[in-house]
Structure formats: structure tokens, C-alpha cells
Design brief:
Oligomer: single chain
Strand order of the largest sheet: 1-2
Number of helices: 4
Strand content: under 5%
Order of helices and strands: HHHHEE
Largest sheet: 2 strands, antiparallel
Radius of gyration: 13 Å
């Protein structure tokens, strides 16, 4: 699901909100990410913003942490990529 679709589902956002969410989405992406990874990440970013996290760096760190926590939960080997203020870790959702 593209970020715009996720945002449309979640409510109406102003231009500054959309710009922030798009920046966070781009800052937390990686080249070999799957569609389910992107969908989960977009949903998490939008939900976090709606919950009240409106700072760019905090949203980025929260997204990285959520991905890392998911990996630990399901036992997926971490894949490192660049971006953000730390070495972010992303995951590939295992096929079921």
C-alpha cells in the first residue's frame, strides 16, 4: 500500500503533515524492501503520527525500533541499511 493510501485511510492531513510523513517514509526505506515491509512501515508511521509523535527524528527512531522489535519476536536475521541517526535495522517478513 503506498503511503498516500495509508494516509487516506487514517484521516485528513495537512500539507506539512504529508511532507513530514513522506520524509520519514523515505528516511526509513531500503532498496530490497518487500511490498509487505513497505505496507507495514507506512501503517506504523501513520499510526505513530496519529498517536501524537510529530517530531521527524522521533518518528524515524520509533520506526527503526518497531522493525527491530519485530525481528527479535519472529527470529528474523537483521539486515542493516543506512539512514537516520543510527544504524537502522529492517526485516523481511517470512512467508507463511
Amino acid at each position: 500500500m503506498p503511503l498516500n493510501e495509508a494516509m487516506a485511510r487514517g484521516g485528513i492531513f495537512g500539507p506539512e503533515d504529508l511532507e513530514l510523513l513522506a520524509e520519514v517514509f523515505e528516511a526509513t526505506s531500503r532498496s530490497h524492501e518487500t511490498d509487505p515491509d513497505r505496507e507495514a512501515r507506512a501503517g506504523f508511521i501513520v499510526a505513530s503520527f496519529q498517536f501524537g509523535i510529530a517530531d521527524r527524528d522521533t518518528l524515524i527512531e520509533a520506526t527503526h525500533s518497531a522493525c527491530q522489535n519485530y525481528m527479535l519476536l519472529v527470529g528474523v536475521e537483521p539486515v542493516r541499511c543506512s539512514g537516520g541517526s543510527a544504524e537502522p535495522i529492517f526485516f523481511a517478513i517470512p512467508a507463511t
